[in-house]
């Protein structure tokens, strides 16, 4: 019995700040070969990549957006549709800025629909897939604005999976089937996508599996289970830092106070400078310097329960390190808080 207790204590000590089963689960995650260059953090580059992907499409262009009001991208889609490319677009029905775009696209015989939703529910998935083989997953809309923009470029099998997701959403919206691409290209990106209830579970799984460090840059963190998981990670010895939009001070003061009281380091995002301040319209998180979570939404009840959202899990150390460096820069420039 004493020998059993000794080995149990040794296992816990060797596991760092996480319990041994969590560490083992995390180690089983395949390592992605996705390069750091696949994560785009410059708005001009993202726009150029988007335009190039549209111009280079030969068979299909499928996209989901929250808001679509960019006239240049709209006209490029119309051009490709007139050239014979199969263009399908899904948008959020509650955004007034989408109405002119929908009218112009329909007048030019481009298939565009509003994703079905109840009032209070939003379509916040943002991506585009070209020819079922190349995709961009976005943090921000195809629209003007002061939000910082990020995107992830995916190819081959990962892009094909996004295309199959779009086909499912299109059928859910219109009851019409699309021919989903079946990619023969090897997919060594290991990128996975989560939606609905699976999104919340994936976030919690990654937090619970962290053994050293959790860095989160997010619109807000207010969902109860997520708050509890982050606080538990801090209590078991993980470094937990959260960089949030300044409006959390008034929007979610109780959540903010809970994080601070538990010893989670929290700062407020200060991007773009005083003359051209920008907001954060995304969430990314880096776990133990090796796994990146990327989404266009907050860690909130609306994200996990109400809206149509998606989350990318990218187990690529190169991408994680790039975003860890960006987080360090943003953290240095952020406004400090004290509990």
Structure description:
The chain has 339 residues and is of the alpha+beta class. The protein has two domains: 138 residues, 2-Layer Sandwich (Endonuclease, Chain A); 146 residues, 2-Layer Sandwich (Endonuclease, Chain A). It contains twelve helices and 15 strands. Strands 8-14-13-12-9-10-11-15 form an eight-stranded mixed sheet, sandwiched between helices. The longest helix is centred in the middle third of the chain and has 19 residues. The chain is globular, with a radius of gyration of 21 Å. The termini are far apart. The N terminus is likely disordered.
Summarize the structure.
The protein is an alpha+beta fold and 339 residues long. It folds into 2 domains: 37-174, Endonuclease, Chain A (2-Layer Sandwich), CATH 3.30.870; 191-336, 2-Layer Sandwich (Endonuclease, Chain A), CATH 3.30.870.10.
Chart the SSEs and their pairings.
Layout: H1 2-14, H2 20-27, E1 39-40, H3 43-56, E2 60-65, H4 71-82, E3 86-92, H5 98-107, E4 111-115, E5 127-130, E6 134-138, E7 151-155, H6 156-174, E8 192-195, H7 197-209, E9 213-218, H8 224-235, E10 239-244, H9 248-251, H10 253-261, E11 265-268, E12 283-287, E13 291-295, H11 301-306, E14 310-314, H12 317-333, E15 335-336
Parallel strand pairs: 2-3, 3-4, 9-10, 10-11
Antiparallel strand pairs: 1-7, 2-5, 5-6, 6-7, 8-14, 9-12, 11-15, 12-13, 13-14
Helix pairs in contact: 3-4, 7-8
